[in-house]
Amino acid sequence: MNTYGSGGALVHMEGFSAGANSTIVYFASEDCSLEEARIETAGGSVFKPKMSIGEYGFIVLATDTEGNMIGIHSMK
């Protein structure tokens, strides 16, 4: 079944206060470790390498070339 649109969630993350650059956009991926391997060669930096978020899969947190925090999510 294909689904379209965007999802969202509000979560508290230690070390981040509200405001400024506190919104993180997550991009869906088949396996976020594949994109993680490309981040530094594209000019960004890995903030948190692939980590489990339990039954919700895995995420990678990175900083893009403009300093924005982005997330990559996958189920494997």
TrEMBL record:
InterPro entries: Glyas_Bleomycin-R_OHBP_Dase (IPR029068)
Protein name per the record: Glyoxalase-like domain protein
